[in-house]
Amino acid sequence: MTERRAAGLRHGSWELAARFDRELGDPCDPATVFSYEESMRLDTAEAFPSAVCAALNAWGLPRYYVPADYGGGLTSLEDLQQLIRMLARRDLTVAIAHAKTFLGAVPVWASGNHGAALRLASLVRDGAQVALGLTERTHGSDIMAGDLTADETGGGYRVNGEKWLINNASRGRLLSLLTRTSPTGGPRGFTLFLVDKAELPQDTYRCLPKVPTLGIRGADISGVVLQDAPVGRDAVIGDVGGGAELLLKSLQLTRTLCPSLSLGAADHALRLALGFAEGRELYGRRLSDLPLTRRTLADAYADLLLCEALSTVATRSIHALPSELSVTSAVAKYLVPSLVDGTVAALGSLLGARSFLADHYAHGRFQKLARDHRIVGVFDGNTMVNLYSLVAQFRSLARNYLAPDDHRPHLAGIFDLERTLPDFVPDRLTLLSRYGSSILGTLPAAVERLDTASLHRPALAGAAARAVELLAEADALHRRIATRMETVGDAAPESFEDARRYCLCFAGAAALGLWEHSHGSAGAGPTGALWQDGLWLEGVLARVLHHLGSAPGRPDRDDALVARLYEQCTTQYGEGALFSLLPCPIAEGHPTC
Amino acid sequence: MLKDENGTVADSAESSVRERIAALEQLLGDPHDPGNPFGHAALLAADERGELIPEAERALDGFGLNAEFVPRELGGRLDRVDNLARVLRPVFRRDPALGLGYGVTSFLAAIAVWASGSEAQRRWTADLLLRGGRLAIAYHELAHGNDFVRNEFAALPDGADFLLDGRKEVINNAERAEALVLFSRTTAEPGPRSHSVLLVDKASLPVDRFDHLPRYRTVGVRGCEIGGFEFRRCPLPGDALVGTPGEGVEIALRSFQITRSVVPGMVLGGADTALRTVVGFAVQRELYGRSLLGIPHVRAAIAGSFADLLVSDCLCLVATRAVHLLPEQTSVYAAVVKYLVPKVLQETTYDLSIVLGANFYVRNGDYGVFQKHVRDLPMTSLGHAGTAACQATIIPQLPRLARRAWTLGEEAPQALFRPHEDLPPLDTDRLTLAADQDALVASLLSGADRLEGPEGRGRELAGVRAMVRCLVDELHRCREEGLALSPQDRTALASPHAYAVADRYALVLAGSACLNVWLDRQPDGSAFLDDPRWLTAALTRVVRRLGRSLPEGAELDVDWMLREVLERHRSARSYDLYDTPLAG
Question: Which of A356, A378, A493 sits opposite B358 (nearest CB)?
Answer without folding.
Answer: A378
